[in-house]
Amino acid sequence: MTAVQVQTVVGVVLIINTYDQIAHSDMISQILQVMRTRAQGRRDMANVAHTPWLGNFNRHHPLWEESCNTHLSTRTNLDKVQELIDAFTELGLCMVLPKDLLTLHALALGNFTRPNNVFASEVLPTAVVKCTTVPEEWPMRSNHLPIVITLDMAPDSRTEAPYFNYRATDWEDFKKVLVCRLGGLEVGEELHTEGEFSDQLNKLTQVVRDVVEEKVPRVKPSPYMK
Known about the structure:
Elements: E1 2-8, E2 11-19, H1 27-41, E3 52-56, H2 75-91, E4 93-95, E5 104-105, E6 112-113, E7 116-121, E8 128-133, E9 147-151, E10 163-164, H3 171-183, H4 194-215, E11 218-219
Parallel strand pairs: 2-3
Antiparallel strand pairs: 1-2, 3-7, 4-7, 5-6, 8-9, 10-11
Helix pairs in contact: 1-2, 3-4
């Protein structure tokens, strides 16, 4: 399993990519447990992640398989896929890879099936520009067809504020101004209370900040700086 979380303009997007083995896999139950824990820990719905869940689930069902693959709808297969359907229902996910798009070519039998799938939380399908297979880019000696998903969203960009350039500072001028400003402070010879101490400290700190703002030049961050 691979999971990537991205902050975007629509909020947090948690992308989950899984591979479920046919014989034995508790991947679905593990992911469900994690998602339940996340939901309990984030009561603010604005911070709940939107979730695309995709991968090779190795599950066949008439909801996404072509009608010619009804032979895959055995009782055993339907029992296995029900756990997956229940999970997506609980998480509020819907299928965004259209039905009847086949994703795997069985090398032994030569027929196409749909073990791969793409599901997403309810808000994301409105942002899906394209979700389809790309047979023309099918890698050689591979039985899986590539799937391309295009979402109409952008990462949450932040503009970094200019920072102080201490190397370019005229320190002689800085010290002259600082000494002059500090000399103008009204400082008592004795401090009797914690409040008086805090008041004097705040005044001193403010003078230093004012001189830094006035005498230390700023520079914009370079886009190549890490």
